[in-house]
Amino acid sequence: PVESFVQAMESEISAVFDSGEPEDILSRAFKLTVTREDICTLQPLGWLNDRIMNFYMGLLVERSKKEGYPAVYAFNTFFYSKLSSTSHKGVKKWTKGVDIFEHDVILVPIHLRIHWTLLVVDLREKTIKYFDSLGQKGDHICKTVLKYLEEESKEKRNIELAASEWTLRSMGTEEIPQQNNGSDCGVFVCKFADFISRDKPIIFTPEHMPYFRRKMVWEIIHQQLL
Q1: What pTM value is reported for the model?
Q2: Where does the Ubiquitin-like protease family profile domain lie (predicted)?
Q3: Tens digits of residue pLDDT in 174-198
Q4: Residues forming the active site
Q5: Containing domain of residue 197, as a range?
Q6: What CATH number is given to the structural domain containing 37?
Q7: Which one, of 188, 212, 192, 209, lies nearest residue 13 by Cα?
Q8: Chain mean pLDDT for the chain
Protein backbone atom coordinates (compact mmCIF):
# COMPACT_ATOMS: atom_id res chain seq x y z
CA PRO A 1 0.00 0.00 0.00
CA VAL A 2 0.97 3.58 -0.64
CA GLU A 3 1.02 4.60 3.05
CA SER A 4 3.62 2.05 4.05
CA PHE A 5 5.81 2.98 1.06
CA VAL A 6 5.61 6.65 1.99
CA GLN A 7 6.48 5.84 5.62
CA ALA A 8 9.45 3.72 4.58
CA MET A 9 10.57 6.46 2.21
CA GLU A 10 10.28 9.14 4.91
CA SER A 11 12.26 7.18 7.47
CA GLU A 12 14.92 6.40 4.89
CA ILE A 13 15.23 10.09 3.97
CA SER A 14 15.46 11.14 7.62
CA ALA A 15 18.19 8.55 8.22
CA VAL A 16 20.18 9.96 5.30
CA PHE A 17 20.13 13.43 6.85
CA ASP A 18 20.61 12.38 10.46
CA SER A 19 23.34 9.74 10.46
CA GLY A 20 26.69 8.82 8.92
CA GLU A 21 29.68 10.81 7.70
CA PRO A 22 29.61 13.73 5.22
CA GLU A 23 31.94 11.88 2.83
CA ASP A 24 29.86 8.65 2.72
CA ILE A 25 29.04 7.78 -0.89
CA LEU A 26 25.29 7.37 -1.30
CA SER A 27 24.92 7.07 -5.06
CA ARG A 28 27.06 6.51 -8.14
CA ALA A 29 25.96 6.88 -11.76
CA PHE A 30 26.48 9.06 -14.85
CA LYS A 31 30.21 9.30 -13.96
CA LEU A 32 29.15 11.14 -10.79
CA THR A 33 29.60 10.27 -7.14
CA VAL A 34 27.07 11.72 -4.70
CA THR A 35 28.06 11.96 -1.04
CA ARG A 36 25.97 12.56 2.06
CA GLU A 37 27.27 16.13 2.06
CA ASP A 38 25.87 16.60 -1.48
CA ILE A 39 22.54 15.02 -0.54
CA CYS A 40 22.28 17.28 2.51
CA THR A 41 21.96 20.28 0.17
CA LEU A 42 18.42 18.90 -0.38
CA GLN A 43 17.52 19.69 3.22
CA PRO A 44 15.04 22.57 3.62
CA LEU A 45 16.52 25.83 2.31
CA GLY A 46 19.75 24.16 1.20
CA TRP A 47 21.48 25.33 -1.98
CA LEU A 48 21.62 22.51 -4.51
CA ASN A 49 25.14 21.89 -5.80
CA ASP A 50 26.40 20.91 -9.26
CA ARG A 51 26.54 17.21 -8.40
CA ILE A 52 22.90 17.06 -7.36
CA MET A 53 21.81 19.08 -10.40
CA ASN A 54 23.81 16.94 -12.84
CA PHE A 55 22.74 13.67 -11.25
CA TYR A 56 19.09 14.64 -11.49
CA MET A 57 19.52 15.67 -15.15
CA GLY A 58 21.08 12.23 -15.68
CA LEU A 59 17.96 10.59 -14.24
CA LEU A 60 15.74 12.63 -16.59
CA VAL A 61 17.84 11.60 -19.61
CA GLU A 62 17.66 7.93 -18.54
CA ARG A 63 13.88 8.12 -18.24
CA SER A 64 13.59 9.72 -21.68
CA LYS A 65 14.91 6.53 -23.27
CA LYS A 66 11.66 4.80 -22.34
CA GLU A 67 8.71 4.44 -24.69
CA GLY A 68 6.40 7.44 -24.79
CA TYR A 69 8.83 10.14 -23.66
CA PRO A 70 10.48 12.82 -25.81
CA ALA A 71 14.19 12.11 -26.42
CA VAL A 72 16.13 14.35 -24.03
CA TYR A 73 19.73 15.53 -24.05
CA ALA A 74 21.08 17.43 -21.04
CA PHE A 75 24.24 19.50 -20.92
CA ASN A 76 25.96 19.63 -17.57
CA THR A 77 25.96 22.67 -15.34
CA PHE A 78 29.43 23.80 -16.46
CA PHE A 79 28.54 23.94 -20.14
CA TYR A 80 26.95 27.37 -20.34
CA SER A 81 29.61 29.24 -18.35
CA LYS A 82 32.26 27.66 -20.56
CA LEU A 83 30.32 28.50 -23.73
CA SER A 84 29.69 32.10 -22.71
CA SER A 85 33.32 32.67 -21.79
CA THR A 86 34.88 30.97 -24.84
CA SER A 87 32.42 30.37 -27.76
CA HIS A 88 31.65 27.18 -29.71
CA LYS A 89 35.36 26.36 -30.02
CA GLY A 90 35.66 25.99 -26.25
CA VAL A 91 32.88 23.42 -25.99
CA LYS A 92 33.20 21.66 -29.33
CA LYS A 93 34.52 18.48 -27.72
CA TRP A 94 31.65 18.30 -25.20
CA THR A 95 29.39 16.63 -27.77
CA LYS A 96 31.95 14.21 -29.14
CA GLY A 97 30.20 11.20 -30.61
CA VAL A 98 26.76 12.73 -29.99
CA ASP A 99 24.38 14.34 -32.44
CA ILE A 100 22.34 16.61 -30.21
CA PHE A 101 20.01 17.27 -33.15
CA GLU A 102 18.73 13.70 -32.97
CA HIS A 103 16.91 14.62 -29.75
CA ASP A 104 13.57 16.33 -29.17
CA VAL A 105 14.52 18.42 -26.16
CA ILE A 106 17.85 19.81 -24.96
CA LEU A 107 18.14 20.89 -21.32
CA VAL A 108 20.74 23.48 -20.36
CA PRO A 109 20.90 24.04 -16.59
CA ILE A 110 22.61 27.37 -15.99
CA HIS A 111 24.57 28.47 -12.95
CA LEU A 112 24.62 32.26 -12.64
CA ARG A 113 27.05 32.72 -9.74
CA ILE A 114 24.44 32.36 -7.00
CA HIS A 115 21.32 31.38 -8.94
CA TRP A 116 20.14 28.39 -10.99
CA THR A 117 18.05 28.83 -14.15
CA LEU A 118 17.11 26.58 -17.05
CA LEU A 119 17.24 26.98 -20.79
CA VAL A 120 15.24 24.54 -22.91
CA VAL A 121 15.71 23.93 -26.63
CA ASP A 122 12.76 22.20 -28.30
CA LEU A 123 14.03 20.94 -31.64
CA ARG A 124 10.54 19.82 -32.69
CA GLU A 125 9.09 23.31 -32.38
CA LYS A 126 12.32 25.27 -32.99
CA THR A 127 11.97 27.18 -29.74
CA ILE A 128 14.46 28.25 -27.11
CA LYS A 129 12.84 29.11 -23.80
CA TYR A 130 14.40 30.49 -20.66
CA PHE A 131 12.97 29.57 -17.25
CA ASP A 132 13.89 31.69 -14.24
CA SER A 133 12.09 31.22 -10.92
CA LEU A 134 13.09 34.78 -9.97
CA GLY A 135 11.56 36.17 -13.14
CA GLN A 136 14.65 37.69 -14.72
CA LYS A 137 14.95 37.79 -18.49
CA GLY A 138 17.56 35.70 -20.27
CA ASP A 139 17.20 36.85 -23.87
CA HIS A 140 20.99 37.15 -24.28
CA ILE A 141 21.35 33.58 -22.97
CA CYS A 142 18.85 32.34 -25.56
CA LYS A 143 20.82 34.13 -28.30
CA THR A 144 24.13 32.67 -27.13
CA VAL A 145 22.67 29.16 -27.27
CA LEU A 146 21.07 29.71 -30.68
CA LYS A 147 24.45 30.80 -32.02
CA TYR A 148 25.96 27.66 -30.48
CA LEU A 149 23.32 25.50 -32.20
CA GLU A 150 24.06 27.17 -35.55
CA GLU A 151 27.78 26.47 -35.22
CA GLU A 152 27.25 22.95 -33.90
CA SER A 153 24.90 22.15 -36.79
CA LYS A 154 27.35 23.46 -39.37
CA GLU A 155 30.28 21.65 -37.81
CA LYS A 156 28.64 18.31 -37.04
CA ARG A 157 26.03 17.90 -39.79
CA ASN A 158 27.12 20.43 -42.37
CA ILE A 159 23.59 21.86 -42.19
CA GLU A 160 22.90 25.59 -41.96
CA LEU A 161 20.38 26.31 -39.25
CA ALA A 162 17.90 28.98 -40.33
CA ALA A 163 17.97 31.27 -37.30
CA SER A 164 14.93 33.18 -38.56
CA GLU A 165 12.78 30.06 -38.11
CA TRP A 166 13.51 29.97 -34.39
CA THR A 167 11.51 31.54 -31.57
CA LEU A 168 13.43 32.74 -28.50
CA ARG A 169 11.61 33.60 -25.32
CA SER A 170 12.11 34.31 -21.63
CA MET A 171 9.15 32.89 -19.74
CA GLY A 172 7.15 35.53 -17.84
CA THR A 173 6.44 35.46 -14.12
CA GLU A 174 2.76 34.81 -14.78
CA GLU A 175 3.58 31.79 -16.98
CA ILE A 176 5.78 29.78 -14.64
CA PRO A 177 5.85 29.38 -10.85
CA GLN A 178 8.19 31.68 -8.93
CA GLN A 179 10.20 30.89 -5.81
CA ASN A 180 9.24 32.57 -2.55
CA ASN A 181 12.63 32.30 -0.83
CA GLY A 182 16.30 32.65 -1.70
CA SER A 183 17.27 29.01 -1.84
CA ASP A 184 14.84 26.94 -3.94
CA CYS A 185 16.07 27.91 -7.43
CA GLY A 186 17.87 24.59 -7.95
CA VAL A 187 14.77 22.58 -7.12
CA PHE A 188 12.71 24.77 -9.46
CA VAL A 189 15.18 24.08 -12.28
CA CYS A 190 15.03 20.32 -11.64
CA LYS A 191 11.24 20.34 -11.62
CA PHE A 192 10.93 22.61 -14.69
CA ALA A 193 13.16 20.05 -16.44
CA ASP A 194 11.15 17.12 -15.07
CA PHE A 195 7.79 18.45 -16.32
CA ILE A 196 9.21 19.58 -19.69
CA SER A 197 10.90 16.23 -20.29
CA ARG A 198 7.47 14.59 -19.94
CA ASP A 199 5.79 17.18 -22.21
CA LYS A 200 3.64 18.16 -19.21
CA PRO A 201 2.38 21.66 -18.38
CA ILE A 202 4.25 23.22 -15.45
CA ILE A 203 1.65 23.26 -12.71
CA PHE A 204 3.59 22.96 -9.45
CA THR A 205 3.80 25.79 -6.88
CA PRO A 206 6.38 26.94 -4.29
CA GLU A 207 4.36 24.98 -1.70
CA HIS A 208 5.51 21.74 -3.34
CA MET A 209 9.20 22.46 -2.69
CA PRO A 210 9.67 20.69 0.68
CA TYR A 211 8.05 17.57 -0.77
CA PHE A 212 10.09 17.76 -4.00
CA ARG A 213 13.32 18.04 -2.00
CA ARG A 214 12.56 14.89 -0.02
CA LYS A 215 11.44 13.01 -3.11
CA MET A 216 14.69 13.94 -4.89
CA VAL A 217 16.72 12.44 -2.02
CA TRP A 218 15.00 9.11 -2.53
CA GLU A 219 15.24 9.30 -6.33
CA ILE A 220 18.97 10.04 -6.30
CA ILE A 221 19.78 7.30 -3.80
CA HIS A 222 17.68 4.73 -5.68
CA GLN A 223 18.63 6.11 -9.11
CA GLN A 224 15.00 5.98 -10.08
CA LEU A 225 12.39 8.68 -10.65
CA LEU A 226 9.10 8.19 -8.84
Answers
A1: 0.93
A2: 32-196
A3: 999 999 999 999 999 999 999 999 9
A4: 115, 132, 185
A5: 1-222
A6: 3.40.395.10
A7: 212
A8: 94
